Structure formats: C-alpha cells, structure tokens
Amino acid sequence: MLVDLIQNHRKSFEIIIINLIVSLSILFAMNNQNSVKEVIVNNEWFAEVQIGEYTLNCRIAGMENDGETIILLHGFPETSYMWINLMKVLAEKGYRVIAPDQRGYSPNARPTFIKEYSLKHTSSDVLAIANAYNLQRFHLVGHDWGASVGWAFVAEYPERLYSWTSLSIPHMKAFQEAYRSDFDQQRRSKYIGFFNMPFFPELYLSFNDYNNLKNIWRAHGDEEKEAYLSVFRQSGALRSALNWYRANIGRRRNPSDHINFGIVRGLDYYSGIVFEVFDKNSKLGALAGGGRYDTLTKAFKRDDIGATGVAGGVERIILTMQEQNIISETQQPRISVLYINDDMQKVAHSIASLLRLNNIPTDIDLAGRNLKKQMDIANTSRYTVIVGPQELEQGNVVLKDMKTGTEGTISLEKLTDDPKSIFNLEML
Q1: Architecture of the domain whose range is 335-427
Q2: pTM of whole model > 0.85?
Q3: What is the DSSP string of 286-338?
Q4: Nearby residues of 263 by Cβ (< 8 Å), 6 or more positions away
Q5: Helix 222-232 crosses helix 200-216 at what angle (to 10 degrees)?
Q6: Where in the chain are the domains?
C-alpha cells in the first residue's frame, strides 16, 4: 500500500525533496558566513559586514521590526546616503532595511585589481550580506550600477528574492541593444567610454576640488553633496568607483563577466568626425586613427580651443614599410647606458640624451633595476657605457665592447666631444 502511495504521488515527493535540498543548501551557506557588527555613528545605525578580507559598511533601519527585509543598492556617483529618506519611510512601514556602501565605496572594501569590481563579485557581495543576516529571502532594489548588480543577482539567485525592483537601468540585454542601435542612447552614454580610460577620468572629475563631480549632483542639497564628497575624497575611492566601468564594460574584459557593447567608434571622447588610415596594399588593418575631441578641452575651462588627435600603431607602420622595402630589416648597432646605483642614474640619463642627440641609438633602463639585470637586458647591444661612483669621481666611465668582452675607462670629456669616433660606429 505504501509503495502504491509513493507511486501515485511520485511527482509531489520529488518536489518536496528538491525544496528540502535547496533549503538545506541555503541554511548551510548562511551558517558559514562571517559575523555582522552593528555600530552607531552620528546617531545613525550602521552594520559592518565582513566579506572575506573586505568589510562593507551598511546603513540599517528598522532592524527591530518583524517585517520582511529590503536591500537597497546605490549607483554612481552616490553612496547609501541616497536612500536615507526612503529607509525611514520603509522602516516606519514595518520593514527591515539594509543599504550597503558597495565595494569601492566602503573604505575597507577597495580591491586593487579592476577585475574584482565585476558584476560577478559585486552580486556575490549582496549574497554575503543576505547570508550574514540569515535572510532566506528578501526584497532587492537597485539604482544605476546598483540595478546592474541586481540584474546579475536575479539571474544567479532568483530563489532568494521576494521581489526585484530596477531603477534607471533596464535588463542588460535591452540596454545593450539600445546602446547599439539607438542614437539618443548612444549620445547619452558617451561618458561610458570616457570612464573606461585609465587615469584621465579621475583627473577630470577631481579637477578644481571635484567641480565636475559636483555638477552631476547639482540638483541635490548641500548636505547630500558633502556626504558623497566625504567618500570620494578618500584615497582610492574615486578610482575604485570608476573601476566598475572598467571591469564590466569594454572589449578588454572576459565576455562572461562584462556587458558587451561591441565596438562603436566615436563614443569614447570624440565629439565630431573620426578617421582611420589604411595601406590599401597591406592586410594589417588600420595603421592610425583619431578624430575630433573638443569636449576634452572644456574639462580644463577652455571653450575656445578645439582639438584633433591621431595615434599610430608603430609596429604596424614598421611592418608595412618593411613589406614595401621602404626600410630594411637590418638593425642598427645600439649603445646601452648602465648605472651602478640610484645616485648614478641621473648622470646616466644625461649621457643617454647626449648620445641620442648625436643620432646614436641608445637604450637605458627606466625601472631602476640592479646592474646585473641591466646587463642582461643590454646583452644584445654593441657597446655599454657603465656609470660608477669611483670612475665618475675621476671624471671617467667604463666602456665595454659586448662583442669582444673587453672593457676599459674613458673620460666623460672624450665621450661627449666625439661619441661616434669613440664607438667607431663608422666601422659597424
């Protein structure tokens, strides 16, 4: 009879077993999370959630309530402060509310490597917060980049949510399609390519006491602006926030971790016509490219100056010239200038500059490596000039013939008067 009962309700038993396995997995994950520490700062409740080696600062409200929990995710360039008024309302309605300063924004959660800001990592932060509070299910709300994190979380952990609310950002596939095909969206999203650049976005946004960043918040009150600035003025905060763009947008990233917008020329920092230079007789592709970028000069308060830039691929140009026998593949003999220690480095640079002014191909180490490593690199040079403290004290340097292995001292005066004769380059 029992066998018949099981057979007749086999499907129901399967569902029960699957749900049991899922619940046990969730509970196991919850019990293996790090602890949560709640503190009061300026009469406001915060939670410090430990996630591996990082600590996320979270605003919290209504934690004494019995209602469901809501996690709020901010975007760029904001922090959990953007939710402060909404958190009060939700807490009054009986909800428990958690709003983290996401990685890069929390002082103790600023990874060094760009890849650590991928949606894979940021969505796992949300999971860690939920597990730290033993939340089997919760409501999730995201704005801007917070919405991108939310979409990633929904795709990975739908069983953990009561509801998901996206503000400002639609599903990423829809946004990707709009970025590809809609001119208005392309125009509005031009900043994305700009933020992908190294170093310059940080300079631009922090210029003149973060004036360009303040312009983004022009509709906000002074108190809110200061709350955001207090974070972005911290060491590494602005770079970490911009690393969200670098980690998730752009063809350099792993396709599984990023939003692939494809290659669309003219959407980085260009403001007008763009161009590329090709050799019609070569299959190497574009040799150079560029365009107009008038908006960059405006960043430095110069509306009266336009700009056109071009950059060439040196390797491609050389290969094309070799293909057409414009230049030969024969390499000129080179000179390497080496230095014993840091004190000798400045003198070595001066010697290298002088040799180059005499049209002598010269190499010098810029990384401050020790002499042995410099010598290893210079192994293919015809001659090496070695600047040492004892020789320099007498006005000399060491000259080594790398072909024969012979070496000797030579006065700086002779070296600077007629370097070509010294190296006998005419005979090389």
Answers
A1: 3-Layer(aba) Sandwich (3.40)
A2: no
A3: -SEEEEE-HHHHHTTT-TT---EEEEE-HHHHHHHHHHTTSS-SPPPP-EEEE
A4: 251
A5: 160
A6: 1-31, 36-174, 274-323, 335-427
The residue ranges of the chain whose pLDDT is under 70 are 1-35, 39, 41-43, 250-273, 328-331, 425-428
Question: According to the model, what pLDDT value does residue 260 have?
Answer: 44
Reported as a single tens digit per residue, the pLDDT across 10-34 is 444 444 444 444 444 444 444 445 5
Starting at the edge strand found earlier in the chain, the sheet holding 383-387 runs 362-364, 335-339, 383-387, 396-401, 407-411
In sequence order, the β-bridge partners of residue 190 are: none
> Long-range pairs for 366-375 at CB < 8 Å and ≥24 separation?
368/342, 371/338, 371/339, 371/340, 374/336, 374/338, 374/339, 375/338
Say how far apart CA 241 and CA 77 lie, in whole Å: 8
Residue type, position 141, single letter: V
- SS percent in the chain: helix, strand, coil, step 5: 45, 20, 35
The DSSP result for 79-93, as a single string, is -GGGGHHHHHHHHHT
d(CA 8, CA 208): 75
CATH of 36-174, picked from 3.40.50.1820, 3.40.50.880, 3.40.800.10, 3.40.50.720, is 3.40.50.1820
